[in-house]
Design goal:
Chain lengths: ~550, ~325
């Protein structure tokens, strides 16, 4: 080989490396003005000792930061830090509400069959500055714009929650919501709280950004302001110095997408991450909790895992077969997959631990609807159904552990009574697509819904029957026997009577054994011991620990 | 000669690129999962999913989608992410330097460590250095890059805390970027070092047996001169000629390394796009990878012509 080649190679390599250094101006895609606006806030906060909170989330990237489309935990968490609702769930406790942008919890007035809720807005609440739109005071015009957007199916994924509502702003600090059909506070408050369609956008910024812009550039009134987005890497938020509850104690939040669990753990242990999404497994909880300077939080709200039987597909069209399957299943065996810290038994479709309308184990046992594990009874029921040798069926499952392990455990348990279940593992999105096409005769679904009405309407009302319902949703059982109590409860303003109706509906559904609730699984996050969220963690509806103006890092 | 060779290789690369791009388009489409469902999440209604499919153009026939894709590509338009709506070109521009830094530094580490080790092993053939070197290089070949990466993260990131365990550093802070580069580059570099050491050892041993070496020794030349002039030079040729192949392999390994180190780069972009069923980002990143592989092969071919005048276009 010629000598000049050998001599040239190292120099060439150095040149190439140097050429690969990103230019200092090469930053993540973000509008210059937005960075400036956020940057000024960072500079003004430079003298404070709030620090940076680095969160490692189990996701590849953001989905949508338009709050009216955000549905994944990775998006809901960010949206929650940037936006407010008229009301909010008490931080760390999803069972209570308190005013947010409104000054008080409203009381409804009813006249000629219509119900009106009136909100008085806080004064002096400022929208974050954004690209070409300086900070300005949020008024009723913004609130009405936002609620109308949430109610429009072309601009919101949650439009159906606002059907029959009209919004008005008689003056800059008053908003009225008029309903065709009255709702109880338990059902109305979640629609105007800091969740899904209830988040309030700033009209001028939203109009300037457009629907596509909102996906990656949220502008609200919350404790943190959007600063930058590095796709597939991280989103940076900075403290909102003008936040109406006071300047956040943290200077910045770096929300990093770290899909690999090992990387998140090592990031936490090396001090590069302060908070990480964990694993819903007691073994993982114990292992991380034993690490020095690390605390693990296990908290609600828990996502409920329920098995739905398609009552139109043989042999599940027979009550005895459905009851046989229920008797063949052992909840304790499912729970053992996660451990007692993370998973808790639930016997009614609405989890009594988190909301009104659920039924406790004792209540269901007294009604004979707790379906205890009894394989002999399962075999008897199969004989009664004319299937003494059992039967076989096949289902698709997501590759996600939350689904796959339940299906696999179910497969093993059913095999003991002669029922053969074939499993086909597909990716998560495909499973959702397939179950909505009614492919599975038995569907496992893991979900949290904010109210009993949402659970019952989406999973048991005839309008929600997959494929054939008026508004096809997730009624995989094709069940249509409890529409009346669900509808009656929705419009009953008396909380006690409402809860009784919900319980009656579930009693009927369980007697017909169209759904077998298994457990709810809590959220698991680990943090460095120096991180304090600022509130006790019992339940957070956005499924993350809740980072707000009180969250801080102790020295 | 070089210009003619370049022209011929570029012409040959066109059909290769077109075939690969078509294959990428088709493979991405047959992947299970719906981008619209993935974008809207589990809570979205069927109606909302269908509406988004329409907006993304996913309800158009496949040939129409292909023609749009090809047309955009020819105009240099890599499209916008189906999930976030950000231009894919911007995403690639941000992430590409991270991948280039990683692969080039790893290549440098692999060559600078592997070559002397291989030479030393050959010169000390059958002695302790040779035995230790062979064990090390065998380990390097056997241990997967991601596993070695985790070990290095545990040691230098968690236990000693000398270097960051995860992340890529900010482009505004070259020092942070440099320190974040060391562990991932070392991971890939050590794996490559093993291959370089094994190959250069074998090439050196082969060259040591040549008549020219025996003659040089018989002439009384000092052993150092014999090794450098009569052994090292001919032994380096296969090593240098395989640099292109190793560079391509490193680009492949960089995907897992970037994911393990939660480091920005094309690999992390690719995996993220796959998880989110982001067709546009996925196919565009794969096209960029293809361009790299074709480009590196082109450069390797040209390097042959440059290094070894016996290699001629159309030659045997």
């Amino acid at each position: 080989m010629p000598g000049h080649v050998i001599r040239t190679l190292p120099a060439l390599a150095c040149l190439l490396l140097a050429a690969c250094l990103p230019a200092t101006t090469s930053v993540a895609p973000a509008a210059p003005e937005e960075s400036t606006a956020a940057g000024s806030a960072t500079n003004s906060a430079a003298t404070r000792s709030g620090g940076i909170l680095r969160v490692g989330q189990n996701a590849a990237d953001l989905g949508s930061l338009d709050p009216h489309y955000a549905s994944g935990t990775q998006d809901r968490a960010l949206v929650d830090m940037v936006f407010n609702g008229l009301l909010r769930y008490t931080p760390g406790d999803a069972t209570r509400f308190e005013p947010d942008l409104a000054t008080t919890l409203p009381v409804a007035t009813t006249s000629a069959g219509t119900q009106t809720w009136s909100f008085t807005l806080r004064q002096g609440v400022l929208c974050h500055p954004s690209d070409g739109v300086p900070a300005y005071e949020l008024t009723s015009e913004d609130v009405v714009y936002s609620l109308q957007k949430a109610a429009n199916k072309d601009t919101s994924a949650y439009a159906s929650d606002y059907a029959g509502m009209t919004f008005a702003n008689p003056d800059p600090y008053t908003v009225t919501v008029t309903l065709d059909r009255p709702l109880s506070p338990a059902l109305f408050y979640p629609r105007v709280a800091n969740y899904s369609g209830g988040y309030i956008l700033c009209k001028r910024a939203a109009e300037k950004l457009g629907l596509d812009g909102l996906k990656t550039h949220p502008v609200g009134t919350g404790p943190f302001m959007f600063a930058s987005n590095s796709p597939k890497e991280k989103v940076e938020l900075v403290a909102n110095p003008a936040y109406f509850r006071g300047r956040p104690q943290l200077d910045r939040v770096e929300y990093e997408y770290v899909a690999d669990l090992n990387s998140r753990e090592l990031g936490l242990q090396s001090g590069q991450l302060d908070v990480i999404a964990g694993v819903q497994d007691d073994k993982w909880v114990d292992q991380l909790a034993s690490t020095s300077n690390v605390k693990v939080d296990v908290f609600g709200v828990g996502e409920v895992s329920t098995i739905y039987f398609n009552t139109t597909k043989p042999p599940f069209d027979k009550l005895a077969v459905r009851q046989a399957v229920a008797s063949a299943l052992n909840r304790d065996e499912f729970l053992a997959l996660y451990g007692p810290k993370v998973a808790h038994k639930v016997l009614s479709p609405v989890p009594a631990a988190f909301m009104a309308g659920g039924l406790s184990e004792a209540e269901l046992r007294s009604r004979g609807l707790d379906y205890p594990f009894d394989p002999n009874k399962a075999r008897d029921l199969l004989r009664q159904a004319g299937l003494p040798d059992g039967f076989a069926f096949s289902v698709v499952t997501s590759e996600m552990p939350a689904y796959r392990v339940i299906y696999e455990s179910m497969q093993a348990q059913l095999a003991r009574v002669g029922i053969k279940m074939d499993l086909k593992v597909v990716d998560h999105a495909t499973m959702h697509d397939q179950i909505r096409k009614d492919v599975n005769p038995v569907v496992v679904y893991v979900a949290f819904r904010p109210t009993a009405d949402a659970y019952l309407t989406q999973f048991f009302h005839s309008d929600a029957i997959v494929l054939t319902g008026k508004n096809p949703n997730t009624n995989f059982a094709h069940y249509d026997k409890i529409d009346e109590p669900i509808d009656a409860a929705r419009t009953n303003p008396d909380p006690a009577a409402q809860a009784t109706l919900w319980q009656a509906a579930q009693t009927q559904a369980l007697a017909d054994m169209v759904a077998y609730p298994i457990q709810y699984t809590n959220q698991v996050y680990a943090r460095r011991s120096s991180v304090e969220y600022g509130h006790p963690l019992q339940s957070v509806i956005q499924l993350y620990p809740g980072i707000d103006e009180t969250t801080h890092i102790t020295p | 000669m070089l210009v003619r060779a370049l022209g011929q290789r570029v012409l040959l690369a066109v059909p290769v690129l077109l075939s690969v791009v078509t294959a990428i388009f088709l493979v991405v489409r047959v992947l299970p999962g719906d981008p619209a469902q993935a974008a809207l999440g589990d809570y979205a209604s069927r109606e909302a999913v269908e509406a988004l499919r329409g907006r993304l153009g996913l309800d158009a026939p496949l040939p129409i989608q292909y023609l749009h894709f090809l047309g955009d590509l020819l105009h240099g338009d890599l499209g916008t992410s189906m999930i976030s709506g950000t231009p894919v070109r911007d995403q690639i521009a941000y992430n590409l330097p991270f991948t280039l830094q990683l692969t080039l530094l790893a290549l440098l580490i692999g060559v600078l460590l592997g070559l002397p080790l291989g030479v030393g092993m050959a010169v000390r053939h059958g002695r302790a250095l040779d035995a230790i070197g062979r064990i090390l290089s065998l380990l390097g070949v056997c241990v997967p890059a991601f596993y070695l990466g985790i070990l290095l993260m545990l040691l230098f990131g968690v236990q000693l805390r000398w270097l960051p365990a995860i992340g890529g550093g900010s482009p505004d802070d070259p020092r942070a970027m440099a320190s974040a580069l060391i562990l991932p580059a070392l991971t890939l570099g050590l794996v490559m070092m093993a291959s370089v050491a094994r190959l250069s050892r074998a090439a050196m041993l082969s060259a040591l047996g040549h008549d020219a070496v025996r003659t040089a020794r018989a002439k009384g030349l000092p052993e150092r001169v014999v090794i450098v002039v009569h052994v090292l030079r001919p032994a380096l040729l296969p090593t240098v000629s395989l640099l292109g192949v190793w560079a391509v392999a490193l680009i492949g390994d960089s995907v897992t390394t970037e994911v393990v180190f939660a480091r920005p780069g094309l690999g992390k972009l690719l995996v993220g796009a796959m998880l989110q069923r982001d067709y546009t980002s996925l196919q565009s990143v794969m096209v960029v990878y293809t361009l790299f592989v074709v480009g590196i092969n082109l450069l390797t071919d040209l390097a042959y012509v440059w290094i070894d005048p016996r290699v001629r276009v159309g030659g045997p």
